[in-house]
Specification:
Layout (H helix, E strand, L loop, with lengths): L1 E4 L3 H7 L2 H13 L2 E2 H8 L3 H13 L3 E3 L10 E4 L1 E4 L10 H25 L5 H4 L13 H17 L27 H5 L1
Parallel strand pairs: 1-5
Antiparallel strand pairs: 2-4, 3-4
Helix pairs in contact: 1-5, 2-4, 3-4
Length: 190
């Protein structure tokens, strides 16, 4: 599996659908699945699930797992470990970016709420390793870009473990200008 995909505008639109984003998350986190198993998991009918899977495949997010199943029972797997976004590409429309990011933010919030509600049930060593921390820095746009790039590199370089006590560990990188600021003309020119 390749490490990441940076979707074009059509891919962003495809991922803006919450069901598709949840499907991709399941396939990345839990491995290959059929339309039937995903439909049961997500409370959908198999026709709708198959449609969403085809949309994800069309944009390169997933692929058929030809080593599993048969002609009647198609298995799907994630084609990449992560999705990276680059909103500076030509043709990216603000409304498309906002729709995608809103879907991502809602999904992150749901997963974070679930993680917090399960914390007291975790094995003792896992209760101490997560964080819900935040920092607020004053930086230039170039410094912010460099920071995000360095953090992404660090996450991507983290080794995967096959040790007996290894478990899936979610890292969400959220970095953005503080909401609610009043921007002056000189800020917008930079």
């Amino acid at each position: 599996m390749g490490s990441s995909i940076t979707p074009d505008i059509a891919g962003l639109r495809a991922l803006s659908h919450p069901v598709r984003l949840r499907m991709l998350t399941i396939l990345r986190g839990e491995g290959p699945a059929t339309a039937t198993s995903l439909a049961q998991r997500l409370g959908l009918n198999t026709g709708a699930t198959s449609y969403h899977l085809r949309q994800l495949a069309q944009h390169g997010f997933i692929e058929e797992d030809a080593e599993r199943g048969n002609a009647r029972d198609r298995w799907w797997r994630a084609a990449h470990e992560s999705t990276r976004t680059d909103f500076r590409e030509e043709g990216i429309v603000d409304s498309d970016v906002e729709a995608y990011l809103t879907t991502v933010a809602l999904m992150y919030a749901d997963r974070m709420r679930a993680a917090v509600s399960e914390m007291s049930f975790l094995p003792e060593p896992w209760r101490k390793v997560g964080t819900l921390s935040d920092w607020e820095l004053r930086v230039t746009p170039a410094q912010a870009e460099a920071l995000v790039h360095r953090l992404a590199e660090l996450i991507e370089e983290a080794p995967h473990s096959d040790a007996g006590d290894a478990a899936p560990f979610v890292v969400n990188l959220n970095a953005y200008p503080r909401p609610g600021q009043v921007w002056g003309e000189e800020d917008e020119a930079r």
